[in-house]
Amino acid sequence: MPAIPPVPIHWHLPAHPASVRRARRAVTGSLPHALRPHLGDDLGLLTSELVTNAIRHGACGKDENLIELVLWPAEGHYWLAVSDPGIGKPELAYPSADAENGRGLLLVDHLAAAWTVRPRPNRGTSVVAGLAYRQGS
Question: What residues does the Histidine kinase/HSP90-like ATPase domain cover (predicted)?
Protein backbone atom coordinates (compact mmCIF):
# COMPACT_ATOMS: atom_id res chain seq x y z
CA MET A 1 0.00 0.00 0.00
CA PRO A 2 1.41 3.45 -0.87
CA ALA A 3 2.16 5.98 1.85
CA ILE A 4 -0.62 8.51 2.23
CA PRO A 5 0.77 12.03 1.85
CA PRO A 6 -0.07 14.79 4.32
CA VAL A 7 -3.12 16.87 3.58
CA PRO A 8 -2.15 20.40 2.48
CA ILE A 9 -3.07 23.24 4.81
CA HIS A 10 -5.27 26.00 3.28
CA TRP A 11 -6.00 29.57 4.27
CA HIS A 12 -8.19 32.22 2.66
CA LEU A 13 -7.44 35.81 3.61
CA PRO A 14 -8.87 39.12 2.42
CA ALA A 15 -6.80 41.07 -0.08
CA HIS A 16 -5.83 43.61 2.57
CA PRO A 17 -2.39 44.65 3.89
CA ALA A 18 -3.24 43.31 7.38
CA SER A 19 -3.37 39.83 5.83
CA VAL A 20 0.39 39.79 5.25
CA ARG A 21 1.16 39.47 8.95
CA ARG A 22 -1.67 36.98 9.50
CA ALA A 23 -0.43 34.84 6.61
CA ARG A 24 3.17 34.87 7.82
CA ARG A 25 2.17 33.84 11.34
CA ALA A 26 -0.22 31.13 10.13
CA VAL A 27 2.27 29.57 7.73
CA THR A 28 5.29 29.59 10.03
CA GLY A 29 3.13 28.44 12.94
CA SER A 30 2.07 25.41 10.90
CA LEU A 31 5.62 24.11 10.52
CA PRO A 32 6.56 21.20 12.78
CA HIS A 33 8.39 22.58 15.84
CA ALA A 34 11.62 20.82 14.87
CA LEU A 35 11.69 22.62 11.48
CA ARG A 36 10.89 26.13 12.69
CA PRO A 37 14.53 27.01 13.51
CA HIS A 38 15.61 25.81 10.05
CA LEU A 39 12.78 27.08 7.84
CA GLY A 40 10.74 29.56 9.87
CA ASP A 41 12.51 32.79 8.91
CA ASP A 42 12.86 31.97 5.22
CA LEU A 43 9.30 30.65 4.96
CA GLY A 44 8.02 33.74 6.75
CA LEU A 45 9.86 36.01 4.30
CA LEU A 46 8.59 34.03 1.30
CA THR A 47 5.06 34.27 2.64
CA SER A 48 5.31 38.02 3.23
CA GLU A 49 6.67 38.73 -0.22
CA LEU A 50 4.21 36.52 -2.09
CA VAL A 51 1.15 37.70 -0.17
CA THR A 52 2.19 41.35 -0.54
CA ASN A 53 2.58 40.86 -4.30
CA ALA A 54 -0.79 39.11 -4.53
CA ILE A 55 -2.49 41.98 -2.72
CA ARG A 56 -0.75 44.74 -4.68
CA HIS A 57 -0.83 43.23 -8.15
CA GLY A 58 -3.41 40.43 -8.22
CA ALA A 59 -6.37 41.67 -6.22
CA CYS A 60 -8.97 43.82 -7.91
CA GLY A 61 -9.82 45.96 -4.88
CA LYS A 62 -13.16 44.30 -4.18
CA ASP A 63 -14.03 42.78 -0.81
CA GLU A 64 -14.71 39.35 -2.31
CA ASN A 65 -11.15 39.07 -3.65
CA LEU A 66 -9.35 36.64 -1.43
CA ILE A 67 -5.77 35.53 -1.31
CA GLU A 68 -5.41 31.76 -0.99
CA LEU A 69 -2.41 30.08 0.60
CA VAL A 70 -1.61 26.38 0.49
CA LEU A 71 1.29 24.79 2.40
CA TRP A 72 2.40 21.19 2.05
CA PRO A 73 5.52 19.05 2.45
CA ALA A 74 6.63 16.89 -0.46
CA GLU A 75 9.88 15.28 -1.53
CA GLY A 76 12.14 17.08 0.93
CA HIS A 77 10.59 20.53 0.45
CA TYR A 78 7.93 22.66 2.06
CA TRP A 79 5.87 24.12 -0.78
CA LEU A 80 3.89 27.33 -0.52
CA ALA A 81 1.38 28.39 -3.16
CA VAL A 82 -0.06 31.89 -2.98
CA SER A 83 -2.97 32.53 -5.34
CA ASP A 84 -4.95 35.62 -6.26
CA PRO A 85 -7.73 36.42 -8.74
CA GLY A 86 -5.49 38.52 -11.01
CA ILE A 87 -4.70 37.67 -14.61
CA GLY A 88 -1.18 39.11 -14.73
CA LYS A 89 1.93 36.94 -14.72
CA PRO A 90 4.48 37.94 -12.07
CA GLU A 91 7.99 38.27 -13.48
CA LEU A 92 11.41 38.98 -12.02
CA ALA A 93 12.33 42.66 -12.13
CA TYR A 94 15.70 44.26 -11.67
CA PRO A 95 14.90 47.68 -10.22
CA SER A 96 17.43 50.48 -9.98
CA ALA A 97 19.33 50.93 -6.73
CA ASP A 98 17.15 53.87 -5.71
CA ALA A 99 13.80 52.16 -6.46
CA GLU A 100 11.60 51.80 -3.37
CA ASN A 101 10.02 48.48 -4.37
CA GLY A 102 10.10 45.76 -7.01
CA ARG A 103 12.45 43.33 -5.28
CA GLY A 104 9.95 40.79 -3.94
CA LEU A 105 10.46 38.12 -6.58
CA LEU A 106 14.22 38.64 -6.41
CA LEU A 107 14.02 37.61 -2.77
CA VAL A 108 11.81 34.65 -3.66
CA ASP A 109 14.28 33.63 -6.39
CA HIS A 110 17.17 33.82 -3.93
CA LEU A 111 15.49 31.93 -1.08
CA ALA A 112 13.51 29.23 -2.87
CA ALA A 113 15.00 25.99 -4.14
CA ALA A 114 12.49 26.30 -6.99
CA TRP A 115 9.56 28.56 -7.85
CA THR A 116 7.14 29.06 -10.70
CA VAL A 117 4.03 30.95 -11.76
CA ARG A 118 0.95 28.95 -12.77
CA PRO A 119 -2.41 30.10 -14.10
CA ARG A 120 -5.37 28.84 -12.10
CA PRO A 121 -7.98 26.71 -13.88
CA ASN A 122 -10.88 29.14 -13.54
CA ARG A 123 -9.44 32.54 -12.75
CA GLY A 124 -6.27 33.93 -11.29
CA THR A 125 -2.62 33.15 -10.80
CA SER A 126 -0.59 31.09 -8.34
CA VAL A 127 3.05 31.53 -7.40
CA VAL A 128 4.50 28.31 -5.99
CA ALA A 129 7.82 28.27 -4.14
CA GLY A 130 9.62 25.46 -2.33
CA LEU A 131 12.15 25.49 0.50
CA ALA A 132 14.33 22.42 0.91
CA TYR A 133 14.69 20.73 4.28
CA ARG A 134 16.55 17.67 5.42
CA GLN A 135 14.49 14.69 6.49
CA GLY A 136 14.79 14.31 10.25
CA SER A 137 15.65 18.01 10.75
Answer: 13-127
Range of the domain at 115: 10-132
- Predicted TM-score of the model (pTM): 0.88
The pLDDT, as a whole number, for residue 102 is: 67
26 pLDDT more than 80: yes
Instruction: Calculate what percentage of the chain has a pLDDT beyond 90.
Output: 64
CATH number reported for the structural domain that contains residue 102 in this entry: 3.30.565.10
